[in-house]
Amino acid sequence: MSNAFKLKQEQVQAALIVLYAPHRETQAKAFVEHFCEQLGDQCSEKTNAQSFVIRPKQKLDLTSLDSDAHIALVFDEEVYLQAVGPKPPGPVSVAFEGNAMIHRLKHGGGKGEQVAKAVGLGKVPQDRQLTVLDATAGLGRDALILAALGCKLDLYERNPVVRELLKDGLERASLVSDVADVTSRMSLNGEDFITVGDSLESESYDVVYLDPMFPDRSKSALVKKEMRVFKQLIGGDEDADALFEPAYRLAKHRVVVKRPKAAPFLAGKTPSLQLKGKSGRFDIYTKKAF
């Protein structure tokens, strides 16, 4: 068993630490090279990336790093995001082929899933494929449910780190028969929706789906490890309101916005109807019937 890779505070000058096993060197270095380019105006010396090589499947000791200032992206058997510092939460990756997700696809609520109801799948004829633009794809979980129910999805994710996780998850899923046919209906774009939304053709999708991060500072927002790491990496989508207008223009039938239960309406727009759950809701903006 190899020793753990130990990284000390004085070795790190960038906020994002990229660790890679030799067999992932090309992908990892390409990511580092384009990281600031992808962030555009948001990039600075403090948000740049710095890379280090590790052994395949090597344990990591990142406990001496500052959990408020640094985070690690690891390229190994899978690509995963790792918080640092003492007692960090476990790694975050996109695992469409994981047992829990497969079980949900096979034995979940089908069109009874809240997200399926929100996009209007029950109103669409069985012989028609619903086209959905997911403008804030994140880890792609809602998109996977919709794809499993037959929808064709174009995915956008503005954060380059999260987008790399999603790209890796889709590539690995394409090799697993249980989910490959589902993920084949999911196409990941390499751009920020806010940047390219105005250049897309009006009413080119049946539904546009939005699930922006909400800048909630309460402790309850940090329960899940994914949310804890995401808040550290992304914070809240402070410009999330800018998503609404291009989304509404592109949607033929409806825009669906996933929100925390107490969050204000996106861009101050009152929805046509809502679906409410225990901790969240779907705000639905209808344009015309299916």
UniProtKB/TrEMBL annotation:
MF terms in GO: methyltransferase activity
Residues noted as binding S-adenosyl-L-methionine in the record, renumbered to the chain: R141, D142, E157, R158, D211
Reaction it catalyzes: guanosine(1516) in 16S rRNA + S-adenosyl-L-methionine = N(2)-methylguanosine(1516) in 16S rRNA + S-adenosyl-L-homocysteine + H(+)
Catalytic activity, EC: 2.1.1.242
Biological process annotations from GO: methylation
Main location: cytoplasm
Keywords: Cytoplasm, Methyltransferase, rRNA processing, S-adenosyl-L-methionine, Transferase
Subcellular location: Cytoplasm
General function of this protein: Specifically methylates the guanosine in position 1516 of 16S rRNA.
Similarity comment: Belongs to the methyltransferase superfamily. RsmJ family.
Protein name: Ribosomal RNA small subunit methyltransferase J
